[in-house]
TrEMBL record:
It holds the Pfam family Aminotran_1_2. The keyword Cell division does not apply. 1-aminocyclopropane-1-carboxylate synthase (ACS) enzymes catalyze the conversion of S-adenosyl-L-methionine (SAM) into 1-aminocyclopropane-1-carboxylate (ACC), a direct precursor of ethylene. Its EC number is 4.4.1.14. InterPro entries: Aminotransferase_I/II_large, Ethylene_sulfur-biosynth, NHTrfase_class1_PyrdxlP-BS, PyrdxlP-dep_Trfase, PyrdxlP-dep_Trfase_major, PyrdxlP-dep_Trfase_small. Signal peptide: none annotated. SUPFAM superfamilies: PLP-dependent transferases. This is 1-aminocyclopropane-1-carboxylate synthase. GO terms for molecular function: 1-aminocyclopropane-1-carboxylate synthase activity; pyridoxal phosphate binding; transaminase activity. CDD domains: AAT_like (cd00609).
Length: 469
């Protein structure tokens, strides 16, 4: 141990968060319709599996792209030897055009500002290496994606200071919350280097309003700090209000080529919009040439393979395909989100109104035994071990109010989602029955004045479930 680096033993990675623990529990007992119908259903993974048929049908129609060929001639050697760290020009062009298309072509992107990375994970960390180090802080609105503890803090040594948002205004960012976070960082002797937001938000599944975006631009202008907009979910916006990229705000406010313009950076990836997290394709888009140059050098630690770039440049340059894909993806996500929301409603559970993402931000405060994070963990454990659904507790997203959970809907079949909702519904009614029993027994005790012990056990739900099967 003594010979290992401090990174190896420090716990700022966040791996022990319930977000990752839930995945581990799922891995031990994964649901399978045939092989393991009583297993845990994975609802803690923001994957988009709704459009694989479209991707696969494109692949079938484009054999050259898949088999390292151009006009039927092999380009295997060319791809195998390709060593330009800046990426294939054709791929970078196709990617910036796709980013613009997702934004309704209201803004355009220049390949000279783009740095390819191995997913948004690498993009966020690389940007942090460019902007911050030990003793520096980045402000992040809560609730936030649990992976940020790893991506922004672990290897860079920088700190996250939360911007505390609350359910009272749908978790929107306010001027006072921004200012309070800034003051809090200063109180901790940390130098604030910037604000990072995810738009659309993970875990809220909402797009940021113009008002919030304006507020952010004003704030970073005033404090002379950076703004990182992680727009990894920009292609998942399925209903109004429409998605507004931070680049669009800068353009509309005629802030191009100003100082603040150079301090705004966008993170993107094909993991969510195209559903390709295994391909590891991400990007940093920055208006600061120094950041672009440094990030390009750093990107040699996490490059995108040339065959991936070749395949995707062909796919994303096919405008007929991208148009159809974007539109069908929106429709399918909308339909699936509706299914989750109505399934939850039937179980007496509501969620934050959302218009984007691969998840809903679900309000289970009424199911807590007390308004505490201990009670949230207690409920989460019951949902994972007894109900057999892996969802992510709000505390793993640093939410300040107990009782919120992130529930994913696009990484499973419609039938699996239906089953998950049935399991949840019977769990909620079992709690109501338990509460009713509790009330009846209380009344009885009042009447008979006898001593008794009430037991609201995990087992009672489990027994009832077994009986029903
Ligand atoms: C907001 C956000 N940023 C970054 C990532 C990492 O994505 P990637 O698979 O591209 O590394 C995720 C993945 O869930 C995310 O939700």
């Amino acid at each position: 141990m003594g010979l290992l680096s401090r990174k190896v033993t420090c716990n700022s990675h966040g791996q022990d968060s319930s977000y990752f623990l839930g995945w581990q529990e799922y891995e031990k007992n994964p649901y399978d319709e045939v092989k393991n119908p009583k297993g845990i259903i994975q609802m803690g993974l923001a994957e988009n599996q709704l459009c694989f048929d479209l991707l696969e049908s494109w692949l079938a129609k484009n054999p050259d792209a898949v088999s390292f060929k151009r006009e039927e001639q092999s380009i295997f050697k060319e791809l195998a030897l390709f060593q330009d760290y800046h990426g294939l020009p054709a791929f970078k062009k196709a990617l910036v055009d796709f980013m613009a298309e997702i934004r309704g072509n209201k803004v355009s992107f220049d390949t000279d500002h783009l740095v390819l990375t191995a997913g948004a994970t690498s993009a966020n960390e690389t940007l942090m290496f460019c902007l911050a180090e030990k003793g520096d802080a980045i402000l992040l609105p809560t609730p936030y994606y649990p992976g940020f503890d790893r991506d922004l803090k672990w290897r860079t040594g920088a700190e996250i200071v939360p911007i505390q948002c609350s359910s009272s205004n749908g978790f929107q960012i306010t001027e006072s919350a921004l200012e309070a976070a800034y003051q809090e960082a200063q109180r901790k002797n940390l130098r604030v280097k910037g604000v990072l937001v995810t738009n659309p938000s993970n875990p809220l599944g909402t797009t940021m309003s113009r008002n919030e975006l304006d507020l952010l631009v004003n704030f970073v202008t005033d404090k002379e700090i950076h703004l990182i907009s992680d727009e990894i979910y920009s292609g998942t916006v399925f209903s109004s209000p429409a998605f507004v990229s931070i680049m669009e705000v800068l353009k509309d406010r005629k802030l191009e080529n100003t100082q603040v313009w150079e301090r705004v950076h966008v993170v993107y990836s094909l993991s969510k919009d195209l559903g390709l997290p295994g391909f590891r394709v991400g990007a940093i888009y920055s208006n600061d040439p120094i950041v672009v140059a440094a990030a390009t050098k750093m990107s040699s630690f996490g490059l995108v393979s040339s065959q991936t770039q070749y395949l995707l440049s062909a796919m994303l340059s096919d405008k007929k395909f991208t148009k159809e894909y974007i539109s069908k993806n929106h429709k399918r996500l909308q339909k699936r989100q509706n299914k989750l929301v109505s399934g939850l409603e039937k179980a007496g559970i509501s969620c934050l109104e959302s218009n984007a993402g691969l998840f809903c931000w679900v309000d289970m405060r009424h199911l807590l035994s007390s308004n505490t994070f201990e009670a949230e963990m207690e409920l989460w454990k019951r949902i994972v071990y007894d109900v057999k659904l892996n969802i992510s507790p709000g505390s793993s997203c640093h939410c300040t109010e107990p009782g919120w959970f992130r529930v994913c809907f696009a990484n499973m079949s419609e039938d699996t989602l239906k089953l998950a909702m049935q399991r949840l519904k019977s769990f909620v009614s079992s709690i109501s029955i338990d509460n009713q029993t509790h009330q009846d027994l209380k009344n009885m005790r009042k009447k008979n004045r006898t001593k008794w012990v009430f037991r609201l056990s995990f087992q009672s739900f489990h027994d009832r479930e077994q009986g029903e099967r």
